[in-house]
Amino acid sequence: MSPGEFRRLEDEISAFVEGRAEEIAAALEEGETDSGEVREELRRRGYLNLAAPRELGGAGVPFSRYVELVELFGRTHGTIRTIVHVANGIWRAVDGRATGEQRERFVRPLVAGEVTAAFTMSEPDSGAGADLKTSVRRDGEVYLLSGEKHMITFGLTADYLLTFARLEGTAGAEGTVALMVPRDTPGVEARPMPPAMGLRGTDYARVSFRGVPIPLENRLGEEGEGLAVAFEGFLAPSRIAVAASCVGLAERALELAVDHARGRVTFGRPLAARQAVQHTLAEMATEIEAARHLVRWAASRWETGEGGLVASSKAKLFATGMLQRVTDGALQVHGGVGYFASPIERIYRDARVQRFEEGTAEVQKALIARELLGKEGS
Ligand SMILES: Cc1cc2nc3c(=O)[nH]c(=O)nc-3n(C[C@H](O)[C@H](O)[C@H](O)COP(=O)(O)OP(=O)(O)OC[C@H]3O[C@@H](n4cnc5c(N)ncnc54)[C@H](O)[C@@H]3O)c2cc1C
Questions:
Q1: Residue pair 98/107 in contact by the 8 Å Cβ criterion
Q2: Which tens digits make up the pLDDT trace of 21-60?
């Protein structure tokens, strides 16, 4: 993509974010639209295949430029940001170990937006990753899949559940498998989670698998490579993209806080004239800029293959902490009125989720420490 083409795309997305996205946000908050309708509009606008390479039918935006676009989408409603994030990222996990035939059957339709997939890892009775308990048993040309997953974003509506399980009787990363599970297969039951704190309009599922027959040709990678499909090549860019969305959302919170500080007068002077408020705003602006630089540094490390995994953890750790501090500061500047339904109230609710996506702060710290300490840090 030429610099001119990128600039035009950026301007178009900025205009969408400032205009139409605000209308969609209001409709999502009121329950007047849902993620299915919003996804279709985003697909028509070409925002769901930005990051995929041209050979796969994507727009071919380089990752280090894509994060700048994610920052823009981060300014909008959390559901819009989530749809863009999932669609522009999940093809990577599927593509990583796909055969040529699987690339045609799964990856191209995903990039084209003809089908959708939900990342189906978390379980109610185990830790995410090597601890997972959902299992498969080979039966001729199929695996029989059994287990429970929960908190699965778009798990009620996606065409496929990209499901991580283990061969019965194995432990740890060994024996894990990644399967493309058509959600309408008999034995798959997806039920809604209780209403979430934020991101209104996004659906979340609790999924039960009861002896679900999955053809062997729907396995991505080899037996034993399930976690590699989940983590290698997918998680680092996904974490960096989450961190970029934090920068965008924090920037929006800061703008709202600045506007409010200028307009609200107490004891004869606007809040903006008070040094205590000025210091809060100055700290917010500084933290946002620091996170933005960390995100762009991590993106370029990942793109050039120089330690992108740990860089992604550092970017995500800092950006999510920054977002928490900035949204809290912005709400404080608004005073009590910010606690009632309003743009800052929605941002405050939506901002909490980034701390769970793609690994918590505790997980990121463990990964960073492991690099510092080697085996002693494991
Ligand atoms: C809105 C939302 C959408 C989600 N969407 C998806 C999805 O699409 N697909 C999916 O698979 N999952 C999804 N999740 C789940 C998400 O990935 C997990 O919530 C997250 O990884 C944390 O895992 P957990 O909830 O099981 O927390 P737990 O593992 O129960 O951890 C609880 C707390 O203890 C800490 N902790 C846990 N183990 C350790 C340890 N060994 N050392 C130190 N601290 C530890 C954690 O950091 C956390 O703070 C979603 C969650 C939310 C809130």
A1: yes
A2: 999 999 999 999 999 999 999 999 999 999 999 999 999 9
Q: Is the CB of 128 under 6 A from ligand 1?
A: yes
Assess if CATH 2.30.30.100 describes domain 3-112: no
CATH class of the structural domain 117-223: mainly beta
Q: What's the CA-to-centroid distance between 203 and ligand 1, angstroms? A: 17
Predicted TM-score (pTM) of this structure: 0.95
What pLDDT digit, counting tens, does each position of 281-330 carry?
999 999 999 999 999 999 999 999 888 899 999 999 999 999 999 999 99
141 secondary structure, DSSP code? T
DSSP E strands, 142-187 = 142-153, 160-167, 176-182
Cα separation of the two ends of the chain: 42
Ranges under pLDDT 70 in the chain: 375-378
**Which residue's CA is the nearest one to ligand 1's atom 31?**
127
The residue written with tokens 């040309």 in the block is 141
Which of 116, 120, 122 most suits a substitution to test ligand 1, by most atoms within 8 Å of the C-beta?
122
For the chain, the structural domain boundaries read 3-112, 117-223, 234-377
Task: Mark whether 255 is an active-site residue.
Answer: no
Which atom of ligand 1 has the smallest separation from the CA of 155? 8
CATH fold of the domain at 234-377 = Butyryl-CoA Dehydrogenase, subunit A; domain 3 (1.20.140)
